[in-house]
Amino acid sequence: MSKNPVVWFEIYADDLKRARTFYESVLGVKLEEMRSPDADLEMLTFPMTQNGEGAGGALARMKGFKAGGSGTLVYFRCEDCAKEASRVAPAGGRVHKGKTSIGQYGFMALAVDTEGNIFGLHSQK
Questions:
Q1: What secondary structure letter does DSSP report for 116?
Q2: How many Cβ atoms from other residues are within 10 Å of residue 105's Cβ?
Q3: What is the pLDDT of residue 65?
Q4: I need a surface site. Which of 8, 11, 14, 80 has the fewest CB within 10 A?
């Protein structure tokens, strides 16, 4: 396979309004409601395109799924991950690991959102 196979992710939240405010504040993006035919599923999507650039994803709340797991780690692309990391605490989360070099692959930071989910920030500078 020549393309990245990741096409979708979901970050579970117990409080979608709080999680939306957090991610919109930290990443500087606008999340949009995604209508679902399943009454037990609510989703707010991150900006995405249909041309295969990057992976689409959403904040989600579903009956029977709790937030706060750490089995999957999603990284968000940034210009400079230190900038987005500096927005984490004011938005109600906490930085787990500040901007760190990963050699030729750029830099990363790890943070915990308002729902207890850990996520990554990645940049080339």
A1: S
A2: 9
A3: 80
A4: 8
